[in-house]
Amino acid sequence: MFVRDVLSVKAGSEIYAIEPEAPVSEAVKRMVEKDIGSLVVMHNGKMVGFITERDILRGMHARGCSLADVRVSELMEKEPLLCSPDDSVDYARDVLTKSRLSHLVVMDNNQLVGVISFHDVAKACLKQANFENSLLKRYIRNWPE
């Protein structure tokens, strides 16, 4: 299974973005309204960073929970880890696990094509395992005598 398969299994394919000069409060508002854990940071149609719930929590900790005057650009990851639609799910799962990340940006030839979460990867793996399990059960039930 490949990252492109995870993208196809995801509930939505919309990419949620925010400007780097937007206040962090706007990023939090969008994440809560859309029930998501990350935003791509875009400026003039180009990805310039990536911000996650974890980045915001770290910012709150560093600033004593006060983010009133903080811009997204101050907390975002400027060079997030990326993957390609042609990468294996095993690779994506390994990167997410070893890096203790919850989200990966998916790029195809310098073109942003999506964002996958650890949850998306787990869901796709479960779907594949369930499918394989049903095939095996069907095969065993129809085993010739």
Q: Can you name the CATH architecture? A: Roll
From the spread of the alpha carbons, the general shape counts as: elongated
Count of β-strands: 6
* Percent of residues in β-strands: 15-25%
Kindly provide the radius of gyration, computed on alpha-carbon positions and rounded to a whole number of angstroms: 18 Å
Q: Taking strands numbered 1, 2, ... along the chain, how are they ordered across the largest sheet?
A: 1-2-3
Mean pLDDT: 91
- Using the coordinates above, name the CATH class: Alpha Beta
Total of domains: 1
CATH H level: which superfamily? CBS-domain
* Low-confidence runs: none
Distance between the termini: 34 Å
What is the structural class?
A: alpha/beta
